[in-house]
Amino acid sequence: MSAVVSWARRATLLIGFVFLYAPIVILAVMSFNASRLVSVWGGFSTKWYAALLENEQLLHSAKISLAAALTSATISTLLGLLAAISLTRFGRFRTRFLFFGAVHAPLVLPEVVLGLALLTCFVAFGVGRGFITLVIGHVTLTMCFTTVAILAALRDSDPALEEAAMDLGATPFGAFVRVALPQIAPAIVTAYLLAFTLSLDDLVIASFATGPGATTLPMRIYSQVRLGVSPQINAISTLLLALVAVALGLAALVSSSRARRDGQVVTSLARAPDNAS
Amino acid sequence: MSAPLLSIKSVSKKFGAVVALEEVSLDVGAGEFFALLGPSGCGKTTLMRCIAGFESPDAGTIALSGVDLSGVPPNRRPVNMMFQSYALFPHLNVFENIAFGLRRQGETRDAIDARVNELLAMTQLSVFGHRRIAELSGGQKQRVALARALAPRPKMLLLDEPLGALDRKLREETQFQLKEIQRRTQTSFVIVTHDQDEALALADRIAVMRAGRVEQVAGPMEIYDRPATRFVAGFVGETNFIEGRLDRNGAAALITEFGRIPCEPGNLPDGAQATLSVRPERIGVARDGEGIVGFVEDFVFRGETTLLRVRVASNIVLRAAASHGERHAIGDSVRLSFPPGAGALLAEER
Fold first, then answer.
1. What DSSP line would sit under B85-111, residue for residue?
2. Assign residue A186 a region: left if phi > 0, alpha if psi is -120 to 50, beta otherwise?
3. CA-CA distance, A147 to A101, in Å (whole number)?
């Protein structure tokens, strides 16, 4: 009876994983396929990865994507931090509700609409589309996520800590940097990595916001797939996947190390006899 | 007091429509242990935050050593605060928490080490210097908060309900430690508390506050024995309120429903409606002789004393503390008496 149950459990788990990850695994495996045909296994080979290094177009797009992700994640983390500070530390200013809504709106706004709005805006102002407009578009897309992540952490940090720092002689800015910032540092790292991955794999906003000369990697992949799947695409997709996985893994590591640190505290507190009272 | 260290003059503060402070004036001397006592919402914490610089008064002035503090930010005030939540920095260890204020003052490394070690020793935390804050017990945290606030040698230390988070036994112990540290450091302590026992035990002088106003400022004994208002008498300790009309002809007395009660009239006019506040332990209980006649309605054994509820009139019950060994049963007829100076005569409020 229990054996049956445990087998059923394992099977369910397996089916779930297959459903979620089989396409990705096949993609990664096929990137090592010596054969040109997706449907035929021609033996193990890394020649498509080697070929990638020769493919100027793809490499150029990869550079554009990385540069855009790094730049936009930096800007949107900074803006998110500022937005979160104003929402938590400046009391109930008059336009707070409006600001709160405006900051969160892109969370639920359809990406296509946001992209179209950006395009219309750039055209209306006569801004030539290229790398800068791409970064602007990605900051618009990701800032709501960074704000939400940092806002939650800042809400949890006790404002009395900053007051105590000021009371002990720190300037308001110094108090924030020395006391509040260390409390929310993990959230800032998480926000940055989140913005980075969102920007890296965005296709919709990029299609609207960017221009000739600044084609991102997802755009390049998408346009090439329409002409037929090349194993090179599998290879670059696998690399992209690995990059995102590393970023997400780092984010998880940051939050779990924090959790572990707090956990250790609890256990060591339980071990140490209280010789104070 | 010649020149007070802290001088508060008619300070008022409103939060929207709520009046937190109304025309508060106080002086605190150098080296004094001063308590702001009152129920929650009486404005005592607001007053403390005004002194620390986290709130600015709408009107009035706060001066320290004769220097007006208005417009001076918290980080420039020679006043430190111990927060109710302690507000210890969780990312720094005990040593760095205490050193925080000294580092902001730009002291040398040796001076900081020496001062922090001195404070660690004073608060019996020497072995905990490298502990993380989360690894400390409540009592230890309280001492770190105290040491951190004392480290930069403030002219005045503000303590917001410093013992509020401790359990009863620890609280009593800590009261003595606080007093000793205050004596040793010669620093003015201003403590905010809603606990009358704490204020009576710790402070040299107490300001009793109610609804944004100061009701009375006096030493603990005077607050207890000579309350200025009915609120003070009721808030600090247990008391009986006996209402009546003052008769100053001959020996002054209060005419009440259950007889003439001799009392000290103070400066109230003849015929005034007045309330006499008498502490239960000042009322003597006897089986016969002179005194107010009453019947024991109920009693509660409290160890040292037995608190009797004695009905002296159809609608008036007085509480009297009979000393240890006296035995009374419900329904016993007793005589209550107290000397004229035992009570405090208060002008009738309302």
1. T----TTSBHHHHHHHHHHHTT--HHH
2. alpha
3. 12
**Domain spans in chain B, listed from the N-terminal domain onward:** 6-232, 239-347
Q: Which residue is listed with tokens 């990595």?
A: A193
- Please give the share of chain A, as a percent, with pLDDT higher than 70: 92
Cα B309 to Cα A243: distance, rounded to the nearest angstrom: 80
CB contact under 8 A, B134 and A182: no
Q: Is beta strand B292-301 parallel, antiparallel or unpaired with respect to B305-313?
A: antiparallel
Question: Which residues from A are below 8 Å from B75, CB to CB?
Answer: 166-172, 175
Complex prediction ipTM: 0.82
Residue A267's pLDDT band, with cuts at 50, 70 and 90, is very low
pLDDT in tens, A152-197: 999 988 889 999 999 999 999 999 999 999 999 989 998 999 999 8
Q: Strand B333-337 and strand B344-347: pairing? A: unpaired
Tell me the CATH number of domain B6-232, given options 1.20.120.1810, 3.40.50.300, 3.30.2350.10, 1.10.287.3240.
3.40.50.300
The predicted model gives A148-152 an average pLDDT of: 93
Task: Specify the pTM.
Answer: 0.79
pLDDT tens-digit readout, B171-190: 888 888 899 999 998 899 99
Q: Which residues of A touch B88 (CB under 8 A)?
A: 164
Cβ-based neighbour number of residue B130 at 10 Å: 10
SS3 of residue B19 by DSSP: strand
- Identity of the residue in B85, B124, B169 whose CB atom sits nearest the CB atom of A158: B85
CB within 8 Å of B193: residues ≥ 6 apart: B35, B36, B37, B44, B161, B163, B164, B199
CATH 2.130.10.10 correct for B239-347:
no
| Residue from B323, B345, B322 nearest B334 by CA | B322
N-term to C-term CA, chain A = 55
Residue B330 neighbours by CB under 8 Å, 6+ apart: B296, B297, B298, B299
CATH of domain A55-263: 1.10.3720.10
Could you give the angle at the alpha carbon of B140 between the alpha carbons of B134 and B146, nearest 5°?
A: 110
3-state secondary structure B37-75: ECCCCCCHHHHHHHHHCCCCCCEEEEEECCEECCCCCHH
Q: How far is B99 from chain A (nearest CA, A)?
A: 10
Q: Are both B6-232 and B239-347 of the same fold?
A: no
List the domain boundaries for chain A: 55-263
Please tell me which of the candidates A164, A169, A172 has its beta carbon nearest to residue B152: A169
Which pLDDT belongs to residue A261?
A: 60
Each residue's pLDDT tens digit, B128-141: 999 999 999 988 99
DSSP label at residue B330: T
Phi/psi class of residue B323: alpha, beta or left (left: φ > 0; alpha: ψ in -120 to 50)? beta
* Average pLDDT of span A94-103: 88
pLDDT per residue as tens digits for the range B152-169: 999 999 999 988 878 888
CA distance B268 to B53: 41
